[in-house]
Each structure stands twice: as structure tokens, then as C-alpha cells.
Amino acid sequence: TQLLEQSPQFLSIQEGENLTVYCNSSSVFSSLQWYRQEPGEGPVLLVTVVTGGEVKKLKRLTFQFGDARKDSSLHITAAQPGDTGLYLCAGVRETSGSRLTFGEGTQLTVNP
Amino acid sequence: NAGVTQTPKFRVLKTGQSMTLLCAQDMNHEYMYWYRQDPGMGLRLIHYSVGEGTTAKGEVPDGYNVSRLKKQNFLLGLESAAPSQTSVYFCASRRFRGNRGGLTEAFFGQGTRLTVV
Questions:
Q1: Where in chain B does DSSP place strands (E)?
Q2: How far apart are CA B82 and CA B77, in angstroms?
Q3: A42, B44: Cβ pair inside 8 Å?
Q4: Each residue's pLDDT tens digit, B79-93
Q5: Helix (H, G, I), strand (E, B) or coil at B83
Q6: For B4, how many CA atoms within 13 A lie in the half-sphere containing its CB?
Q7: Chain A to chain B, count of Cβ pairs less than 8 Å apart?
Q8: Which site among B10, B25, B43 would you substitute to test the A interface, given the most A Cβ atoms closer than 10 Å to its Cβ?
Q9: Diameter of chain B by CA atoms?
Q10: Average pLDDT over every residue of A71-94
Q11: Quick check: bond before A8 cis, omega within 30?
């Protein structure tokens, strides 16, 4: 079983719609990250959330870290075709030290 | 500033052949990682290293070996390639500690697309 479970796995929406992607675990994480990956490239960091309950905004993207530090969400407002890509959450468990693990990813397609 | 460089970018192997993938980073990062990415899946951790001369197993280490003889290089070896090892392999590195706490940013190479026939 995956340590970090993302949902949905695939999402296809129209330009202008809003969406939320979830990242859940039964383990506590010291912090979580969200990355975005485009075809043929490695993932690129979007944000790191550290404190339980923390909310961070990056333009139209809003990231939230759960109060218990076991889950996170990514909300995109008024999605644009340029938001298309694979969104990955990643984290290191509190008991793990340096072992950086990733979720399965959410493949987002925004149609014009 | 090259960042993380992986070589080769593409490779086709026959079943049973061996090969080594090289990852080099010029950011003086302590931590380095090898992942594989299969269609419809995220990144699965193969092995990682927290410093020169140290390595540890990840989620899917079987069939792979690694070495970190120099801080800037992390090598991934396949002793006897199998078709199940057909995948895209990514190397990543990150600093041990950030300025404000929390995870430090992981920087990735461009990936190595490996096909085992």
C-alpha cells in the first residue's frame, strides 16, 4: 500500500473550473510538499507546508496541511490550460528522518 | 549551474545485461535519491543516501544496487536487467536542512528512460 494516497488519480476539467486534489496518509509527517511534473521533465517544487493547519497560497493555488499533519489538499481556482500536469505530494514521516516518499500523483488536464 | 545531471538519457538493454546509471549534482547536497516512475504511477523510491559512503533501501530496492563514493555522485546499478525494470528513472538531491524548518526542496534530473527487452 502507498504511504501517501492521492485522489483523484485523473481529473479532466474545463478552463475556468475549480478543483481540489487530496493527499492522505495514516502516518504523521513532519512536513509535506507538492510538486508538479510536466511530460519528459522531473518534478518541480510548488510548496512546502510545515505546521498543522497551515494554509499557503500561490496565485490561484491554495495548499492546506491537515491539523494532525496526516493529510494535505491542493485547490486550484479558475483552472487554466497551463495548469495541466501531474501533481505529486511528497513527505518524510516523523519517524523516517530523510526518506522522501511520493504519492501516486494526480494527472490534471485542463481543456480550453 | 547544471543542478542534477543524469546519464544516459535513454538506454535499451537485453534481459540479463548490466548497466550503471550516473547521477551528478553540483549543489553540495547531502541527500540523494533514486526513483522509478511507471505509467500511471508516482515516484517509487529505490535507494537513497544521506551522505558520502552511506546508502539505504527504499520501497522497491530488489534488483538494484547503489554507491555513493563521492558526495556529488550517486550511482544506480542493475546487475541483471529484467523486463520489469523497464521504467523512467529519476535522481534527486536536496539539502540536509533548510533555513526555516520543514523539508528542503528536492531537485530532479531529467530522467533516464530504460527499456529492457
A1: 4-7, 10-13, 19-25, 31-37, 43-51, 54-57, 64-67, 73-78, 87-94, 107-108, 112-116
A2: 13
A3: no
A4: 999 999 999 999 999
A5: helix
A6: 27
A7: 78
A8: B43
A9: 47
A10: 95
A11: yes
Q: Locate A76 and state its grid cell.
A: 486550484
Contact between B90 and B72 (Cβ < 8 Å) = no
Is A108 at the interface with chain B, CB within 8 A? no
Could you tell me which chain B residue has the CA closest to the CA of A38? B110
DSSP symbol at B28: -
Amino acid A1: pLDDT: 60
What is the rounded distance in angstroms from the CA atom of residue A79 to the CA atom of residue A111? Answer: 9
Q: Are strands B112-116 and B4-7 parallel, antiparallel or unpaired?
A: unpaired
Q: Tens digits of per-residue pLDDT, B6-27? A: 999 999 999 999 999 999 999 9
In the beta sheet, which residues pair with residue B113? B10, B88
Of B40, B58, B90, Cβ closest to residue A42:
B90
Q: Which residues are within 8 A (CB) of A34 and not within 5 positions of it... i.e. 6 or more apart?
A: A23, A45, A46, A47, A63, A72, A74, A87, A88, A89, A90
